[in-house]
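Troubleshooting log. The previous structure file for this entry was overwritten by mistake, so regenerating from the original sequence record. Sequence copied from the archived sheet and checked twice against the printout by T.R.
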Amino acid sequence: MELVKQNFSIKDLEHLSGIKAHTIRIWEKRYNILNPDRTSTNIRTYDSSNLQKILNIAFLNEHGYKISRISKLSEEEIGKMVKRISASSSVENRAINAFKMAMIDFDEELFNRTYESLQEEKTFQEIFQQIFIPLLGEIGTLWQTDTIKPIHEHYIVELIREKIYLNIAALKQERKPTSDRLFVLFLPENEIHDVGLLYLNYQLLLNKKSSIFLGSNLPISDIKYLLDKSDNITFMSYFTIAPQDIIEFVREFQEEICSEKPRELFLFGNRVKQFEEQKKNFSANIKFFPSIQDFIKTL
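Regenerated output below.
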């Protein structure tokens, strides 16, 4: 079993802090700001305390403090300065950094504390759009560069998913649908990334729309059983890694679901963005949305 990463390379620090590895080496040599261990082949490795320190240094540096001044401060003084400046700095950037540290350290308490602090001044919609979406984008980059492992991504995504479910449950208690239009949300076979689709369901409920959330890995043939549920159904799906052939997916949808009459299919996710310019080649009942925001504007 692969061990969870507890030590980080200088490239990892670059990806997490935004400071170039070359600059970190210079600062380390000139100002002794970090204390890395070295492997038997003399390669630097950094623990989580080094990671926290470079994140704090990066924060101060972004706010106009020169490294020559920062290097003279103790870690306690650096921490206090970060907290003081944080009071007037970007709430979004602070939260994203806190969530990243919560992910790295598997710290649910830090995650919840940061989330609850955001709730004091932001709606859940604002938290998701301003913080969770950029955070998930950064996490994708960190995973691609092997800075974090899948276990880190799974951990933070599950915590975000829990918050979406809690807000969905609250909406179901507070708001009743005011439209007879039914939205059916599902992910295709071999697609398991459901955060985007869950948030779409939240938006539908927020706008008092009727919805049925079917979850992940569902064959198109199975959704036929809902056709008798309503005469006004719009199907929605979100593509992150599947299907392999989107054109074939659309063809199957038309054959299986639209044999009697056209039914709308709204498609979202990174994999559909390439089809935005080709939408004129698809039937009018197939609609591609480059972002969730574009869909929200139609509600």
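The longest helix spans residues 150-174. Archived copy saved in two places this time.
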